[in-house]
Design goal:
The chain is an alpha/beta fold and 756 residues long. The chain is 48% helix and 12% strand. Strands 3-2-1-4-5-6-7 form a seven-stranded parallel beta sheet, with helices on both faces. A six-stranded parallel beta sheet has the order 10-9-8-11-12-13, with helices on both faces. It has a three-stranded antiparallel beta sheet with strand order 14-15-18. The protein is elongated and about 95 Å long. It comes from Aporhodopirellula aestuarii.
Length: 756
């Protein structure tokens, strides 16, 4: 039945020819809805590669998945395209930002109802996953899930109103009438019993457990063959190559079952896939993740009338209940062998199972499923009480402030095979002063933050490797300390570096350990971190203590149970707190009788320690001292004015106004973001913006400090001019500030209240 009401529907998600399950689902759903309705069905795609894919004409807008601004542009496109309803496919891994939070920026800006299909519904989400999910639920007019288990999880874990949820099975193609003997002959397996697994290959698929079951199976059925159909998952292929498939092939050889296993390493189209299913005697899904809410491959095989053996992940447990299939324990080759042998040896039972699956599958075909989606789209539009206003403007107060693009040109210009060069004459690297551990530590931190934000590009990985290699060379394993200054001809200029370089290097190592996904980088950083940590106890600089505390808590993100690291953080925090209590007065609530450089790091360290250890004393000192610092670093015009390095600020005296350094702006950005994370007070997010805006020209001279074409940053603000040299410290201060502000923007988006 045609629905004349909906004129234009936009499908948002991955899309073919991208090789992933969501892309296939979005494509098939769009085709089905277009066939069952009169609506124009357009697509907005997410691209995980530069330039995207060779899409067909229905794709009208492409979004680079890690570029936040493109999500807002997509919202503008949808608003001005007279779209009646959006069909959004949601999986945490297909959108950019922490736990896919970038998609919220689009949803907050669109003016039409959104029907969100939840391909994963986690029963035990992380804090960030839960926050993203709650926003997604609030911004969606209706939600679609594919299993009763997912529906119950929405109701119980996320307190969703049951009236907002539609239960619609995963769609499947119409299975053509086929002669199995003809199909077997086509694939050259006419004299064999065939088991099939298909889908993109990755370690979570559990293929190795089927391979281990084959020796027992072939003892009963010598003509048995196991076909593994599907290419390696593209993201896995980029990160690890064909390691998993190669390991499986070697395992089959060691087990002596090579002639009973066939790997088809390619992504097959639907018609060919149904032929493979038709040629198989049974289908196996040995997946290892119990919380897998839906499996398109399982739905396809089942709906095509295949006998299925599966591990009891959520979708399989529900679909195969009441004898519609066979469930085996996770990672249990013996159970797999037993059930395969049982089904192959009982034709009546296997054929009855296939018939039951095929009959139930008629309610899962795309023509039927698409009509259910159309009904959901119509309900969503009827629910909307606010009239669609695609041209409605939004004030600046209703949207986050724009941030500059991340440009790494100047950083790459300053970096050679040794590391990042300290200084520049204007924008030209100055080889005279060589390199230092401080700057290479900062640069390494930046690369990890970029990786965390999805900017894990080859050039970023290359830079990270160089900076890590510099720190590794700088570390003296005999003393447990870092040397700091290296001449351009690669000669160390001192036997032992400064205390600050020790703390800053530890911060970089902790960041690698706590935030990176690179196993090699983590392993190296962990080894050096443990060797460098004890030396912090002998340092005397409060800034070193602060940097070390921040680094330790980055490390504790991954290894929260490390009591030695936690004890060191507490010891150093106690030193800072005791120093504050010995020096602070009501008029001068500070750690020393002079505020010098990198000041906000002292406050940030205690806020961090107090936040993670739930220590109110530390948190209070950190917040009080930071608030005071905000007050004395505010110009009469209400702009951020860092304490000048030409005299600093002594108790009872007027603070130096110039020379203003980029490192102070970055320190205030970081500390304010940490304070916001502690208590969600909007005051702190405003302070982070004030400090960051110093780079953009909201400063005493009203001149920008950063170069938007390269991402370079000038070396400071003098009394009458900008210091136009673009050294590493200032450039990295800006780039780190920008990366952290992007992180704050994502946090604010997850925590914000929708406006519609």
């Amino acid at each position: 039945m045609k629905s004349p009401d909906l004129l234009k529907i936009a499908f948002v998600g991955d899309y073919l020819p991208r090789k992933c399950g969501i892309a296939t689902f979005t494509h098939d759903l769009r085709i089905g809805v277009a066939r069952e309705s009169c609506a124009e069905c357009i697509v907005v795609t997410m691209d995980d590669t530069e330039g995207g894919y060779a899409y067909d004409g229905e794709v009208r807008f492409q979004v680079a998945e890690q570029e936040l601004d493109e999500y807002r542009s997509a919202a503008d496109f949808l608003n001005f395209s007279n779209v009646d309803v959006i069909s959004l496919q949601h999986e945490f891994g297909i959108y950019g930002g922490p736990c896919g939070s970038h998609i919220l920026a689009m949803l907050q800006d669109v003016r039409m109802p959104v029907v969100t299909t939840l391909h994963t519904v986690l029963s035990e989400p992380s804090q960030t996953q839960r926050a993203v999910m709650m926003q997604l639920i609030r911004l969606s007019t209706r939600l679609v899930v594919m299993t009763e288990r997912s529906r119950q999880t929405l109701l119980n874990t996320y307190s969703v109103d049951s009236e907002q949820v539609d239960l619609i099975a995963h769609g499947i193609p119409e299975a053509p009438e086929t002669d199995q003997s003809v199909l077997k002959e086509q694939f050259g397996v006419e004299d064999k019993t065939v088991a099939l697994t298909f889908g993109l290959l990755s370690p979570g698929k559990g293929i190795e457990h089927v391979l281990k079951a084959i020796p027992e199976i072939v003892a009963k059925f010598p003509d048995f063959i196991y076909i593994v159909l599907g290419a390696t998952h593209p993201s896995l292929l980029r990160d690890q190559g064909e390691r998993y498939r190669i390991n499986l092939e070697r395992m089959a050889k060691e087990l002596g079952v090579s002639k009973h296993v066939s790997f088809y390493n390619r992504f097959v189209e639907l018609e060919e896939l149904t032929e493979f299913i038709g040629a198989a005697d049974l289908y196996i899904t040995p997946y290892l993740n119990v919380q897998q809410a839906v499996s398109g491959t399982l739905a396809y095989a089942f709906g095509c009338g295949q006998a299925v053996i599966s591990t009891p992940y959520w979708h399989a447990e529900e679909l195969l209940a009441d004898g519609r299939g066979v469930l085996v324990p996770f990672a249990d080759p013996s159970a797999i062998a037993r059930e395969v042998i049982g089904l192959l040896g009982d034709d009546d039972r296997r054929l009855a199972m296939r018939k039951q699956a095929y009959q139930l599958g008629r309610s899962m075909t795309w023509d039927h499923v698409s009509q259910l989606y159309i009904d959901s789209f119509n309900r969503a539009r009827d629910q909307r009480t606010v009239a669609l206003k695609p041209l409605a403007v939004r004030t600046l107060d209703e949207q986050p402030l724009a941030l500059p693009q991340m440009q790494l040109d100047h950083l790459q210009h300053l970096s050679d095979s040794t590391g990042v060069i300290q200084h520049a004459i204007y924008s030209i690297p100055d080889h005279t002063h060589g390199y230092c551990t401080d700057d290479n530590a900062r640069a390494l931190i930046l690369t990890v933050l970029l990786e965390e934000q999805g900017k894990d590009l080859p050039e970023v990985r290359s830079l990270a490797s160089r900076y890590a290699a510099f720190l590794n060379h700088a570390f003296n394993r005999d003393t447990g300390r870092f040397r700091n200054f290296l001449s351009f001809d690669r000669k160390w200029l001192e036997k032992d570096g400064s205390d600050d370089s020790q703390g800053r290097a530890l911060w970089a190592l902790g960041t690698c350990i706590g935030r990176s996904r690179s196993a090699g980088l983590i392993a190296w950083a962990r080894e050096v971190f443990h060797q460098a940590l004890p030396a912090c106890e002998q340092t005397t600089s409060p800034r070193t203590w602060a940097l070390a505390i921040i680094g330790i808590h980055e490390y504790l993100r991954r290894y929260s149970g490390d009591r030695v690291a936690a004890a060191m953080s507490q010891q150093l925090a106690d030193r800072l707190a005791n120093m504050y209590e010995a020096n602070a007065t009501n008029e001068w609530p500070w750690f020393e009788n002079i505020a010098t450089y990198n000041n906000a790091k002292l406050s940030q360290a205690l806020i961090t320690n107090g936040r993670w250890f739930d220590d109110q004393r530390m948190a209070d000192i950190g917040l009080k001292s930071l608030r005071w610092l905000c007050e004395i670093q505010l110009s009469p015009q209400g702009r951020f004015r860092p304490i000048g390095s030409n005299g600093f600020s002594r108790e009872g005296e007027v603070a130096a106004v110039f020379d203003q350094q980029a490192i102070e702006a970055h320190a205030m950005v970081s500390a304010s973001i940490e304070a916001f994370a502690l208590n969600k007070d909007a005051f702190w997010s405003e302070q982070a913006h004030l400090a960051f805006d110093w780079f953009l020209g909201r400063n005493d001279l009203g001149q920008p400090i950063y170069d938007p074409s390269t991402g370079g940053c000038f070396d400071g603000l003098m009394e009458n001019r900008v210091n136009e040299n673009q050294g590493a410290e200032s450039t990295l201060a800006f780039l780190l500030s920008l990366a952290e502000m992007r992180g704050l923007s994502a946090t604010m988006r997850v925590a914000s209240t929708p406006t519609h």
